[in-house]
Specification:
Order of helices and strands: HHEEEEHEHEHEH
Distance between the termini: 40 Å
CATH topology of the largest domain: GTP Cyclohydrolase I, domain 2
Largest sheet: 5 strands, mixed
Strand order of the largest sheet: 5-2-3-6-7
CATH architecture of the largest domain: 2-Layer Sandwich
Low-confidence stretches: none
Number of helices: 6
Strand content: 25-35%
Mean pLDDT: 92
Number of strands: 7
CATH class of the largest domain: Alpha Beta
Helix content: 25-40%
Length: 195
């Protein structure tokens, strides 16, 4: 479903009027179209299937001799993301760290970024976002285990309520073999290791 930009522009004009502003004044005349463009970008993942990005896999067993299967994890650290909290429609942003234990098939690393971006580009809560990323990778790759660690700063914490500008939220989602405490601890240690 595409974002209805015309409706967003009208609603933005109404919002400006509701807070006592004049949407016709020089500084605000372009605001409705800018907000519509912004929302189209922020919510581009609504209705999109993240599995599409995991459909092109690469066989690691059919490479140069000696043929082998991976025995360890693939870990991508520091995937920057931004989303919008569904409770207050305020932004939250941070980094996702995504690890999986591949079977015979792996996926291009850019595909992992696209999964994170697709799922983040919709009204979200961080706790669900990490679980959805883990589910998408577990369900669509030949993965023996998945671990997703997310660390984000939330506008609803920094801009309103308690106003804690330095507070961040960390969530963890695990599937399969990486749910085992030792395997999980090893990956979390690698996430924290210096690059």
């Amino acid at each position: 479903m595409a974002v209805d930009r015309e409706r967003l522009e009208q609603l933005t004009r109404e919002l400006l009027e509701a807070i006592g502003e004049d949407p016709g004044r020089p500084g605000l005349t372009q605001t409705p179209s800018r907000v519509a463009e912004l929302y189209a970008e922020l919510f581009a993942g609504v209705g999109e299937d993240p599995a599409v990005h995991l459909s092109r896999t690469i066989s690691v067993a059919d490479g140069p001799a000696p043929d082998t299967l991976p025995s360890g994890a693939v870990l991508m650290r520091g995937i920057r993301f931004r989303s919008v909290c569904e409770h207050h429609l305020l932004p939250f942003a941070g980094v996702a760290h995504l690890a999986y234990l591949p079977g015979e098939q792996v996926v291009g690393l850019g595909s992992l970024v696209k999964v994170v971006e697709t799922l983040a580009a919709r009204p979200q809560v961080q706790e669900r976002l990490g679980e959805q990323i883990a589910d998408a990778v577990a369900a669509n790759l030949d993965a023996r285990g998945v671990l997703v660690v997310m660390d984000a700063v939330h506008g609803c914490v920094t801009l309103r309520g308690g106003r804690q500008p330095d507070a961040s939220t960390v969530t963890v989602a695990v599937r399969g073999e990486l749910a085992e405490p030792a395997a999980r601890a090893e990956i979390i240690a690698l996430i924290g290791a210096a690059a």
